[in-house]
# Entry
Amino acid sequence: MAHPVPAQQSVPQPSEVSPGSPASSGQRLHLRRPDDWHVHLRDGAMLKAVVGATARQFARAIVMPNLSPAVTTAASASAYRQRILSALEPEAAVAFQPLMTAYLTETLDPEELVRGQAEGILTAAKLYPAGATTNSAAGVRDLAAIAPVLETMERIGLPLLVHGEVTDPEIDIFDREAVFLERHLVPLLARYPGLKVVLEHITTAEAAAFVAEAGPQLAATITPHHLHINRNSLFAGGLRPDFYCLPIAKRERHRLALRRAATSGDPSFFIGTDSAPHRREAKEASCGCAGIYNAPFAIESYAAVFEQDGALDKLEGFASEHGPRFYGLPLNSDGIILERQDPASEQAEAVPLTLELGSEAGSPLTLVPFHAGEALPWRLLA
Ligand code: DOR
Ligand code: ZN
# Structure
């Protein structure tokens, strides 16, 4: 179980790990317990298979509503929250708080959001441009069609979470995020200056710079995979479906810009894993699904980046403080401990190549985790 960290204590403790200098095996890093501000937990057998991995590390998680059918009402979000908690072991269900979101459609009644927020069910609402990604067909075609919804969210202080990609087939897939900023995000922020917006899973230097320069109205989540891989990873030695996600990984210069943003200490950037499990057969198919399943080793994955960039002292802000501050929620009061291992050593524990997580419709449910087969430098202690 987690080692409690006093509320005001800043971690990592310098006596244990000094930022910038390489840590050695057995050293420990104490962190205030982090939250995941963007995760896909799915439903049914998949939900049962994956939810424990998120609850093991994170106190809270913003749960994406792109089920089929989508979670569009306060009642369906409440029922989904109950299914999430029921899928956990009782002890984990007490400690873990799913934060629910509503999927915006062009026919959504703004009163649904008012009610959902007042009842303590909805923490945010998610904008999927129609056709941008998995289960987004019911999303928004024209932002003007949801103007009353956005006005209401601005008035009641309900954050808008944005999948920031245009769906215009004329626009190259690698440019869809940057074009979204110009075409849609700039006018949206100007039109609703009081609306809190999170640009989800940013993938470009343009997005990182835009968010850093915008005021407190705008923040961004960054996934572990976009900090580790670039677009070449998708084709390294052959077609690599496990690295296919949306927004798609970009050039190396973008990955480096994201790493600078994440490790900068700027409070506009925080964790959002975008862990998006698809069973192995659905990834390794002639038309494979977008999504990377990073939940089981997410905090370890981020810790590796912060260590490589000599910024372990910035990890706690990114993982555990910037998100709650943006959402206006309290910081978690308990903590987690990561232990250093030498990834090159023969004893190093590696991420499994596959995870067999029960069965779905009579066949085994196999997932390939992000970092499959790799040893990471920091391991979460149980
Ligand atoms: O890669 C992705 N997978 N990106 C998304 O935006 C959605 C997600 C999913 O739900 O599979
Ligand atoms: Zn997502």
